[in-house]
Amino acid sequence: MINNKSSEINRLINSIEVENIIGLEIVDFWDSDITAIGFRFGEKLLYISSYNYFDTENYNVIIENFDTGEIIEPEKEVDFYGILAKIKELSK
Q1: pLDDT digits over 14-27, tens only?
Q2: What is the mean predicted confidence (pLDDT) over 40-53?
Q3: For residues 60 and 79, what is the distance between their CA atoms, to the nearest angstrom?
Q4: Nearest Cα to Cα of residue 78 among 32, 20, 12, 3
Q5: DSSP at 46
Q6: 7, containing H or E segment
Q7: What number of CA atoms fall less than 13 Å from residue 57's CA on the CB side?
Q8: Are strands 71-78 and 36-41 parallel, antiparallel or unpaired?
């Protein structure tokens, strides 16, 4: 559990950790944003926001270059299974 994150972000992290994905690194550059978390895969960062989750039941995700912040895939809304699919793709 990450103390400075919302219950939805902590639930998401717990659900993803159960999948035992190799190379998954949790990163948090957004200390003051309780609805955001990131997962790093080498030079790629999967940014996830649950800001609108309770209205849409979707997360907002962006894929960036970890070192430069360059956008690799622009923001889109996905459900949990979409996040899981993207994580599995990035972890290969």
Answers
A1: 999 998 888 889 99
A2: 96
A3: 9
A4: 12
A5: E
A6: helix 7-17
A7: 1
A8: unpaired
Burial letters for 4-14: b for 16+ Cβ neighbours within 10 Å, e otherwise? ebbeebbebbe
Which contacts (CB < 8 Å, 24+ apart) does range 43-51 have? 43/67, 44/72, 44/90, 46/83, 46/86, 46/87, 46/90, 48/9, 48/12, 48/83, 50/6, 50/8, 50/9, 50/12
Average pLDDT over every residue of 44-72: 96
What tokens does 7 get?
């219950």
One-letter amino acid at 30 equals W
pTM assigned to the model = 0.91
Structure tokens, 1: 């559990």
pLDDT above 90 (res 59)? yes
